[in-house]
Structures are given as structure tokens and as C-alpha cells.
Amino acid sequence: MNMAAHIAAHGxxxxxxxxxxxxxxxxxxxxxxxxxxxxxxxxDFSTAATMSSLPARRLVxxxxxxxxxxxxxxxxxxxxxxxASLALAIYRALGFWRRLRTRxxxxxxxxxxRALQTLACGNFLRVFPSMQKALKHxxxxxxxxxxxLPDAFPARRLIHRADSWQELGWELRPDASIVQSAxxxxxxxxxxxxxxxxxxxxxxxxxxxxHRWYTEWQALWKCGCFVTMDYGExxxxxxxxxxxxxxxxxxxxxxxxxxxxxxxxxxxxxxxxVNFTDLLQLAQRNTGDIxxxxxxxxxxxxxxxxxxxxxxxxxxxxxxxxxFRVLIQNRFAVQ
Length: 335
Ligand SMILES: C[S@@+](CC[C@H](N)C(=O)[O-])C[C@H]1O[C@@H](n2cnc3c(N)ncnc32)[C@H](O)[C@@H]1O
What we know:
The chain has helices at 3-9, 16-25, 31-34, 48-51, 54-70, 85-100, 111-121, 131-137, 208-218, 235-238, 261-264, 276-284, 296-300, 309-316; strands at residues 13-15, 76-79, 104-107, 125-128, 141-147, 156-160, 165-172, 178-184, 203-206, 223-233, 248-251, 254-256, 269-271, 274-275, 290-295, 324-331. By secondary structure, the chain is of the alpha/beta class. Strand 7 (165-172) and strand 8 form a beta hairpin. The longest helix is centred in the first third of the chain and has 17 residues, at 54-70.
């Protein structure tokens, strides 16, 4: 992708949020619009869903519990299903009879991935471009889940100066190089991170675009459960020993630093850790919902077969089990 041309078209500087929006979701050149097969062991990054059937089995168990609690068979809505690994694993975990009476909806932003998911799963799933459309088809009640979704939303990046926060972005230099540079911040995003005692020079990310997106469809969701699985932490530990924040890229399983991103924009994944305190607080705004934050290890354990090396690895290897979190939002009183 010619990121320099995109930055020039925006006046020579773009915020990190716009940089990620272009690099990941530009309609023809964005990573998720083009590189549709690069998730998994042979791609740029692996997710739990592409490594083992355990997350699928646990989600099916959780869906059954939720259906029992509400006394009805809830449709399943997966958001941001990538190459459909998790949808296919859920297809298998449901088994023949439950599959027959279960509606499975996928919400996917990338048209190329929507086509891939339809091809991979056939009649089992129905794909929608937005939560609003999927919830309408589900009549408002659903078991909703996503794996590694919030981290893939464009994030604002801010740097702490002596008496203020500045917005970090990307500047096009006269020699055509693209460098990180800060501008005065017009309006701070709402985030728990600003109440932390952070040192001068600390860089933080805020997934404000995810917060907006989440808020947009909450009123349409009448009942069920929403499970969010991703890497990240509560705010009080998120930036421990991370003065430069958590923005990074992945290409062929190699970690890329922020400075390497402009040259590979459109050809690598770009991500930042999720501030789960922000997500928890957003969910708690919906009074009446019961909200719980777990490590992925604690969430998956009830279904784990520890004699299976892939499952044991998923739970034990540093990072996979405890750097990943699961946020559960139960809405059992129909709204
Ligand atoms: C990091 S990938 C995760 C893929 C998959 N869930 C997995 O675990 O392998 C992020 C996915 O979220 C999708 N996505 C990003 N923003 C979205 C949005 N607003 N609505 C639906 N899908 C979105 C991307 O296109 C991509 O499929």
C-alpha cells in the first residue's frame, strides 16, 4: 500500500487511529480487505481459534448454559470471524442435531472475509456486515462472541507530556519517509488510563473506535450473553514496563515495532493490547447486566483436556493463558 500517498492526501499527518484504519481496512489496500488467508500457523499470526478446538467447545458449552438460563435456543452471533476457523470448530462441536436447530450469524467488516467465510461454512452460517443487521435477524436475543476483535480496531495513541497529553500520529517528511510525531490533542478519549499515575513520556493506546462501535448496537441487544476474548489487561497493570505502549505489528509470526509499520502497511497485522477496565466499565453502564472478567485460562479450564498437548499449551504457555482475558456480559432480563 502506498501509505505516503494516503498521508499526503490528508495534509501530511494522520493520527494513529486513521493510520490503522487505512492500513487494516482501506477498501482495496487494507490488510483485512486483501490478505484474507494470513491468519493461522502458516500466516502472519495465530489466534487461539486457529490452534485448538478448545475455545469452540467451551463456547458451545457456555452457549448451552445461556440457552438453559433463558429457556430458549439462542442464535449464535460471532463477530470478526477472520478465516472462519472458530466457526468451523463450533460447527463440529455442536454436532449434527444441535446444528440443525441453531442459527449461526457472522458479523464481518471485510467484504473479502465475508466471501471467504461463506465459502468455508456454506449454509451453516449467514454473514452480515453489521451487528444491527444480525441482531434484527436474531430478534434482538443472541449468544454473541468475538475472539481478538477489539485489539483489531483502530486505536488512538497518546503520549504523556509534563502537563498534557499529545496525540501521536504519522508524519510524511519531505524525503518521503514516514515518522511518528505528536500534535496537540483536541479532545482526550474517555478512558480509565488517564486516571493512572503514569510517568512523563509514557505512550498509551485507547480503542475509542471500539467503544463507539460497541455503544452503537447495545440498545438493539435485548437478551443473551456477550463473550469478548482478547489479549490485554486491566488498566493498572497494562503499562507496567511498557513505556512505549503496546502498538505493534505481525508479519509471518515476526513481531514488528511501530517504526517498521509504515513500510509494511497493508501487508501486516497491526494491533494494540486491550484495556479491559475500559470494556468492563462500558459493559457495567448497562444496568441490570451481570459482568465478569476472567483470564482465558480460567474461562477455558472447565472444558480442557490437559493430556492434549495443544490444549495444555494454550493454558500453560506464558501469555496464552493469562495475558488473554475473557469479558462476559450477561443480559438475562429481557430489555
Ligand atoms: C484479529 S482478526 C481475528 C479473527 C478471528 N476472530 C480469529 O480469532 O482468528 C480480527 C477480525 O475482526 C474483523 N473486524 C474488524 N472490525 C470489525 C467490525 N467493526 N465488525 C466486524 N468485524 C470486524 C476483521 O475483519 C477480522 O476478521
